[in-house]
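INFO batch 0412 | record 1 of 1 | parsing
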Amino acid sequence: MGGLCSKSAEGPPTLPRNVSKEEDLKVAPGNFVKENTGSFYNYYKLANAPLGSGAWGEVRTCTLKSTEEIRVVKIISKTELPQSMINERAAFHEANIIKKLDHPNLPRIYEFFEDEQNYFIVLEYIKGGDLFDRIVELKSFSEAQASQIILQILLAVNYLHSCGIVHRDIKPENILMNDSNSLSLKLVDFDTATVFRNTSFRKMFGTPLYMAPEIVKGKYNEKCDLWSCGIILFILLTGRPPFGGSDDEILARLKNMKFDFRDKIFKGISEEVMDLLKKLLEVDPNKRISASEACSHPWLVNLKESVEDIEVLDILKNIKNFRGASKLKTLIHTFIISKIADPAQYKTELAVFHLLDANRDGKISKEELVKLMVDKKLPVEEAEMYAELIMEHADIDNSGFIDYTEFLRASVNKNRVLTKENILNAFKILDQDKSGAIEVEELRQWITDDGSTSVRLVEEIIKKVDKNEDGKIDQEEFESLLIDTVRRKTVSGKTD
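INFO prediction complete | emitting tokens
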């Protein structure tokens, strides 16, 4: 898919062009994330107790009334913001960054609201607590556990950096565990994130304990994120931070930062691990390892989820045999995969995605597909032909890469995604006014977030599935679009 990661350089802002042809409609998870001009409280029921709070607001769980799905909302109080940030609507900066990202170690975002008192950003509920709490619970981690954690963080950082985004506040509190029984995680909280293009920054952001020395010195770049990863790795391995003190004391120490890696605290840690730790905690950012290099470090390079050859070949065959559908069906299918279906069900597909993503930048190229198939003893010419077919079927926006959601859309069996519950929930979300049908303006606003899709095009799209010719899509027509004849009765609830 496109988005930030497909851009080689920032260009001047352009006005949205009017989309009047179905083939010109873009299909990406970010398309479905937009500002909801209604009242947050009309759509969500807010939990009484906050999960956490900060200088500008708080985070609470909330329940989407139409589907009973639990999400989280970041509530940012306008009374705590300077007028300049309110004028610029700076609170939505985070939402506008996250909506363009597509990676298994980054959170889903759904929508955002504004009223007279607050801004609301609605995000995925990640229920396993944060890494800070896990560290407090376990005290320290084995090298195997530490490698699982730090690799996922580095994969997220490498993807962000390949998209031209620096996070600037990576710390255990901003790393959420997907559940309490595993080390699967997501990097969250993009308040201080920003776009970079071969530039350096001067304004100080971050949390002192995890802040790179060059930030204190007043000139830094995206390599500051790697230092933060190094501090986290230090804590995982030793069970304690590298230094203590007040924020002011830590900032003063960072101005003349030196590590003694001969300290007895590192006794028993393997040479490979120490090598990565030293490269992450290199004081000179010009000598510090990059995210891409860190992901390919000898300690981490062979760390992959276990997946059988037959599973890899089956998924590649699914993608090769995948056939495109109407643009509306493709949009809804993508919406369900990226915003509704439980991401925990994609474990095998995720393992294959990581296996294919050889350079670990969060997307799959044709060259990576060819390499894997040649490694599996397929002749080069056959592998190239196979890869060409896979790219043709999966890369729906012709960006030259297969992003994570594109990969899932083509590889996951539709019967697992287009379930009765998922289809019904998708319909309820699209039927914003709860009228029992999806109307022209509801569909138009859902398809694009800039109002660029023409009314006539949306009317033509609806006409293709509007069997009773009332100019709307009712629930039965919606189901008929997505389900084959064999399964239609089951999903409509007429039979089990």
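INFO post-check: The CA atoms of residues 360 and 447 lie 31 Å apart.
INFO record closed
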